[in-house]
Amino acid sequence: MNKAKNKKYTEGKILNSLTQLALPIILANILHTAYQLIDTFWLGRLGANAVAAVSLSFPILFLVLSLGAGLTLAGTVIVSHHKGAEDQRQVNFSSSQTVLVIFFISILLALLGYFSAPPLMKLVGASSEILADSVSYFQVSSLGFVFLFMFFVFQSLMRGIGNVVLPMYIILATVFLNLILDPLFIFGYGPIPAFGVAGAAIASIITQGLSAATGIFILWRGKKGIKINWSDMSFNLAWTKKLFVMGIPASLEQSSRAAGMTVMVMLVTSFGSDVVAAYGIGARILSLVIVPALGLAIATTTLVGQNIGASKIKRAEKISDLSSKIAFLGLTAVGMLLFLFAEDLTAFFVPNDPKVIKDGALFIKVMAPSFGLLGVQQVLNGTFNGVGFTQASMLISIFSLWIIRFPLAFVLSNKTSLEFEGIWWAFPISNLIAATVAFIYYKMGYWKVRTIRNRHQSPVG
């Protein structure tokens, strides 16, 4: 077994461990974004209707994928606990069970997505011009759920043992491959016919299939810290229940975030296209800031998980403290830079619209000082996830978006003289309140008491 790639994260310098885990995860997240941008670039060459047809599918696809992402996060946590406890037998067993359960769930979701595509696309408002394209894109994408979820499993299990570089290399290879296959299947070449909008989904399925096959092959060989086996793949009801108990709150957290942003867009649209454009620019900036915050949060989940498995609760707390400080200081610094260059950034997206530049820059300036608080909330959610207390992360996220941000945005924009600027102010206020609640709850130490109690009752897995 390669020692460098499967080093122990239950000892040594915490800062080094955080850096070694967080940077490849952040890069992998950036590559995922590049993957989507490549699709949009080539589809844009077909016209606005092609982009609209695919855009309609994204919210529903994201909701489906959030279910898979939540369950695979549970796999990360369970495997990280066993890795920390140096129980390789349980690492392999838990990994095999995760692959089995997610495989059958992905088949079920693929069939459901394929056959429900026409009514779903009509439900989200697909007009007659784009209905056929949106349905074909969604159906082909649904067939790819099996491959996509299998790669999610591989990536999550590797993160659980601390091997984050290997999945990043595979994602990098798929981005380059997608760059070639997208135009090939969208526009056709030689014997390959032009599939149009569905061609982007076909290209994605091919790259997802290759990455999933590579990941499962690596797990099967067992040379990178995890070995899955047929003998461990008989259905285990107790284990599956544990995966769902831990994974469903994580899925709900992610899907509630997607639904929250969708509802916010509906509120913004009531103020006209200029405000929608300004909001769109601010939302793009926010999505870029979220990338390092989530990378640090996932690294924290792995490190905390392994140290909880090794019964090193004090070290797990030190990891969380350091990660929170890095998130707060680092993202506050990023926020200050964005504050200073807000007009230039907005003008880059819409160079010839003074009103959108003014409104978009104001949105960035209002949000930017609170980016450090957003980072703290994400990292503490990562801590709770690492312990296996995914319900806490879910409740904090739902509280932030649905109890604070959206109602506040509605009241400030509709019931005060702020108008649409009230929507802007809902972001920093909700970031402040959510980070404060998460920090107070973290300092109360219930997660430590819960961990000690669980370890006395039974091991994870």
Automatic annotation (TrEMBL):
GO cellular component term, pick one: plasma membrane
Domain of life from the UniProt record: Bacteria
Transmembrane intervals: 21-38, 58-79, 99-117, 137-154, 166-189, 195-220, 258-279, 285-305, 326-342, 362-380, 392-411, 423-442
Any one GO molecular function term: antiporter activity
Topology relative to the membrane: Multi-pass membrane protein
InterPro entries membership: MATE_fam, MATE_MdtK, MdtK-like
A single GO BP: monoatomic ion transport
Compartment annotation: Cell membrane
Pfam entry (one): MatE
Main location: membrane
Keywords: Antiport, Cell membrane, Ion transport, Membrane, Transmembrane, Transmembrane helix, Transport
NCBIfam families per the UniProt record, alphabetical: matE (TIGR00797)
Identification of the protein by name: Multidrug-efflux transporter
